Amino acid sequence: MDFALPDELAELQATVRRLAQDKVKPRARQIDETAEYPQDLFELFRDAGLLGLCIPTAYGGSGAGILGLTIAIEEVAKYSNTAALMLLLTRLPTGPVMIAGSEEQKQRYLPGIADGSQRAAFGLSEPQAGSDVMGMRTRAVRDGDAWVLNGTKCWMSGVVQADWYTVFAKTADEVTSRRHDSTTAFIVERAWDGVGVGSTDRKMGVRGVDTGELLLTDVRVPAENVIGEVGGFRLAMLGLNSMRPIVAARGIGLAEGALMYATDYVQQREAFGQTIADFQGIQWEIAALATEIEAARLLTYRSAVLADEGKFTKEWVPYLSMAKYYATEVAVKASGLAVQLLGAAGYMKDHLTELYYRDAKQLTIVEGTSQVQLGLIARGVLDRDLWWD
Ligand SMILES: Cc1cc2nc3c(=O)[nH]c(=O)nc-3n(C[C@H](O)[C@H](O)[C@H](O)COP(=O)(O)OP(=O)(O)OC[C@H]3O[C@@H](n4cnc5c(N)ncnc54)[C@H](O)[C@@H]3O)c2cc1C
User: Fold this and answer.
1) Ligand 1 pocket test: which of 89, 153, 155, 156 has the largest number of ligand atoms within 8 Å of its C-beta?
2) Which of 81, 116, 129, 266 has its CA 20 to 30 A from that of 60?
3) What count of other Cβ atoms lies within 10 Å of the Cβ of residue 60?
4) Rounded Cα–Cα distance for residues 93 and 243 (Å)
């Protein structure tokens, strides 16, 4: 057992850390205020080879895996969760393709993500189906050598910029079917007839990468664009399970950034004849949070290693869900403490603390809420998948 990163990942961490400090940090506030897609950061990540971290070398990526992407996202999220989301989007829609896609799909769709010539997004949620994904109503009906898709996906991150989408739809006869073999994954290209972007959301945080609706009206999807097998809903869960470390990385990075920011401030700010950092009560808060951040980091790195080993099936779910649950809750806590430690200054837009605070909250909602993760962890213990005997 070794807690040190292998040399190549330590090098990646150092490189992305510099890049995040030099290029991402100065842009964070502006991205939030304009809410404009930061194309400059996309190009920066492309030129630094970060868009292909999780894509195997056979498909144009660098093969750094989920752990590599986790480490890069942690660094970037110290300053901008929007930038971290841009990196996350290289894995969320491509995950199902890498897990169960055909060789032809991998050759066709993965290299463009790795070299930045294409972008993708992931459509599972619908207005009436968030946590309850089986409530989805988007429908795919077989017609000759194609499937015809109709429906609306919502809250889709990166929907505006995407060139293709991983979309889940009901393929059972009954759209209300809750059977797990009633749902299938498809690759849908933006340029196809009937594919449109609907309204975009007015978000509290993580502005700059829009979330919004994907409208599907009589879209003909060739049968070869089914990912995995027809009725393969399990793929949605496998894809999301393998994403837990990557969402967790956005949480630990944000928590580290917020705590470092607040620490710098309390060491400067004076009150009652000393600095705020001299008060023991403040030191204890910093110490407790630093401990939680390190605990979350260990859970996150372990979950990334497991995911890279292909351990994202049911028996590994508690370890993966714990990382997502804990790291994102720590992010919310850290950003709240950071605002508090800066007092009035922390509440104002002159400081990054209020941005951390707004950005953090979505992390406990996306890709399975904290409650959903707790349910999965509990199921793991009750089923003895997580047991200490
Ligand atoms: C910024 C942002 C980006 C997003 N990006 C994407 C994307 O790219 N693609 C995509 O498909 N979706 C995306 N989503 C949607 C996201 O996955 C859903 O919001 C999430 O799954 C929760 O669904 P919901 O919002 O419908 O909440 P609901 O399911 O309505 O839940 C409401 C509340 O009830 C709780 N709850 C629900 N069920 C249970 C239960 N069984 N036990 C206890 N509590 C429960 C939830 O935890 C939550 O607190 C995004 C959301 C946001 C906010």
Assistant:
1) 155
2) 81
3) 17
4) 10
Residue 369, sorted as left (phi over 0), alpha (psi -120 to 50) or beta, turns out to be beta
Q: Are the C-beta atoms of residues 32 and 208 closer than 8 Å to each other?
A: yes
Residues 188-222: tens digit of each pLDDT = 999 999 999 999 999 999 999 999 999 999 999 99
Tens digit of each residue's pLDDT (9 = 90 or more) over 264-303: 999 999 999 999 999 999 999 999 999 999 999 999 999 9
DSSP state letter for 2: -
What pLDDT was estimated at residue 175?
87
Residue 142 pairs in a beta bridge with 147
Pick left, alpha or beta for residue 22 (phi over 0 → left; psi -120 to 50 → alpha; otherwise beta).
Answer: alpha
279 three-state secondary structure = coil
Which residue has 């700010």 as its token pair? 269
Asked if residue 130 has its Cβ within 6 Å of ligand 1, the reply is yes
281 burial via Cβ count (<10 Å: 0-12, 13-18, 19+): exposed
- Best CA proximity match to 131, nearest among 378, 373, 327: 373
Compute the distance between CA of residue 258 and CA of residue 242 in angstroms, rounded to an integer. Answer: 26
Q: Say if residues 206 and 82 touch (Cβ distance below 8 Å).
A: yes
Ligand 1 centre distance from Cα of residue 358 (Å): 17
Q: Which stretches of 48-102 are DSSP H helices?
A: 65-77, 81-88, 94-100
Q: Token digits for 355?
A: 């941005």
377 vs 299: CA distance, rounded Å: 13
Question: Is 367 annotated as catalytic?
Answer: yes
Cα distance between residue 333 and residue 228, in whole Å: 39
Q: How far apart are CA 73 and CA 300, in angstroms?
A: 12
Position in ligand 1 atom list of the atom nearest CA 89 = 8
Contact 321, 373 (CB under 8 A): yes
CB of 122 shorter than 6 A to ligand 1:
yes
90 close to ligand 1 (CB < 6 Angstrom)? no
